[in-house]
Design a protein that fits this description.
single chain, mainly beta
Length: 58
């Protein structure tokens, strides 16, 4: 949360997360979209998914 700095959510990605996620809000609910692709040079799992998450309302 921006008021407290408290972590409110975390998840393991299906591939390496060397990418900037997008975030947006609709009706006071925050969404996070990321396309983790990984990279063999950074020794992270390679993938080709686009994943969207919805944080708890409120």
């Amino acid at each position: 949360m921006t008021d407290t700095g408290k972590e409110v959510w975390q998840v393991d990605l299906p591939a390496g997360g060397q990418i900037t996620p997008m975030t947006y809000a609709v009706d006071d609910r925050q969404y996070v979209v990321i396309a983790p692709g990984g990279h063999h040079f950074m020794e992270t799992k390679v993938g080709d998914e686009v994943t969207a998450y919805a944080l708890p309302a409120g």
